[in-house]
Amino acid sequence: MSDLLRKLCAVLLLVGSCAAIADPIACDDQQAAIAAAANAKARDMLQKVVSLMDAGDSIAIDRLSLWLGVINSGQQQAVADRLNKAWAFLGGTSFLCDTADPDYAWVYKEQPFTVRLGSAFFSAATAGYSSQGGTLVHETTHFLISGASKDPPKRELYGTKAALERAKSSPAEAQQNAENLEYFVEATFFGMDPP
Fold this sequence. Notes:
By secondary structure, the chain is of the alpha+beta class. It contains nine helices and four strands.
């Protein structure tokens, strides 16, 4: 629970109840199995995409430009390094679940190896944009040691359309954005054109 939520909860306890604000808990067996499968898929996704980039695959390179605004080998290497770090993180990631939270997932950048999963994660598809594996790619790029990627500053700046526009208008921002990184990996791994 964030410090702000803890303070809010303390105030609410004085005037009523704070039962609705809770820390995520250990995932049940079904949730843990779903998270483990998504984790394995995310690692496969990252490994394949980085391999394609390293091999100079023309489709992967085109998608780097489309989703991240990458225009040179230095930028390409920086993306590959970040994705390799995310792959390594996923090897030791643990999961907490909070299905009362409507979001997909979240992390605390300073607390590596723990991903909190919300209800949207469990209803997400296993392939395509905003997939379970892609969500884990998104979240692990947030950790400080894997580059501290950022989220869009406003809810309306989430999604594929906003990510494509960000890559065109601000490539440097796109290359630091978890949404853009996720969609690049998903598009390349699943062989998808932009929606």
